[in-house]
Write a structure and sequence with these properties.
five-stranded mixed β-barrel; Immunoglobulin-like; 296 residues; 17 strands; OB fold (Dihydrolipoamide Acetyltransferase, E2P)
Length: 296
């Protein structure tokens, strides 16, 4: 009788979880998921492998929309690739502060060839929990480490704060190591994760890192003036239509977001305190530039 009741309880839990729960709901906008210990069904686009143990999936391009799906050692399905949208059922848990989906029951491929654009952050933003397990990018960040730290990481800073970059995914995925040069500036794309009480950014392979002096997918002909800003107005001009301008303070907080669709933008800076800010400018073609400005 106990065995029957237990089986019925499991079946009930699985049936109850068949309703789709979004990753945003699972993350719960807090450090511990409100679904911790519960069986849920969710979906997202695969943005990275984690060795052969699982995937990172994402179902949006704003905060709290990434999740680590853990199958176990060498147990992840081999027919899933980056860009596949999957529906997966499993149990939510908190593994040393990282929200993940484990004890996987079912995995279904829904579609293929999907694209997820990285969220543009400052190095300070890498430590913001809402970006846990999400695909992000930092731009024009200086390598501060003369040699790897204890576990092979490097520290980078774009002027907002130090961020730790780890090549663990890279070295596992392509069996090679990254060797950045102290004092050089880089653009880095990767997955934000949390371990040993620290948020880190994990590039997935060599394509996720470029020297900042090599402009990849950036807006050509972009002009920002005056810099420093001394007359309360900042002007931005571009050959292509500017889609958005995000303004960050030096602790990585977004202080203003401006959505436009024009080639010239005038921003009133009179309410901003004196100091340095970082602009992330995106055009209508998805190209992104990062610029530092000073208000005097």
């Amino acid at each position: 009788m106990k065995t029957i009741l237990l089986s019925l309880a499991i079946l009930f839990a699985i049936g109850a979880s068949a309703q789709l729960t979004t990753i945003y709901e699972i993350q719960g906008q807090t450090d511990v998921s409100p679904y911790d210990g519960q069986i849920v069904t969710t979906s997202g686009v695969v943005t990275s492998f984690v060795r052969a143990d699982g995937f990172i999936i994402q179902d949006g391009e704003t905060g709290w929309n990434g999740l680590y799906v853990f199958y176990g050692s060498d147990a992840a399905p081999t027919d899933i690739v980056i860009g596949d949208e999957i529906e997966v059922q499993g149990q939510v848990s908190e593994y040393y502060g990282l929200t993940e989906l484990g004890s996987i029951i079912t995995t279904t491929k829904l579609s293929s060839g999907n694209t997820v654009n990285p969220i543009s952050l400052t190095t300070a933003g890498v430590s913001d929990e809402q970006y846990e397990s999400m695909l992000v990018s930092i731009s024009d960040a200086e390598c501060m480490s003369p040699e790897p730290l204890e576990f092979g990481e490097y520290e980078f800073n774009d002027g907002s704060c130090v961020a730790t970059i780890d090549d663990k995914l890279w070295s596992y995925n392509v069996d090679s190591e990254w060797d950045p040069v102290q004092g050089e500036n880089y653009n880095v794309t990767g997955i934000v994760s949390y371990s040993f009480d620290l948020y880190r950014l994990y590039p997935r392979d060599i394509n996720d890192v470029t020297e900042a002096s090599v402009e990849i997918n950036q807006i050509e002909g972009l002009n920002i003036y005056p810099n420093p800003v001394t007359n309360d107005v900042l002007y931005i001009t571009s050959p292509s239509n500017i889609a958005s301008v995000n303004i960050y303070n030096m602790v990585g907080q977004v202080v203003n977001t401006i959505n436009v669709y024009k080639t010239d933008v005038a921003i009133d800076m009179s309410a901003y305190k004196q100091g340095m800010y970082i602009l992330k400018i995106a055009d209508s073609q998805g190209k992104i530039n990062t610029r530092k400005i000073t208000i005097k």
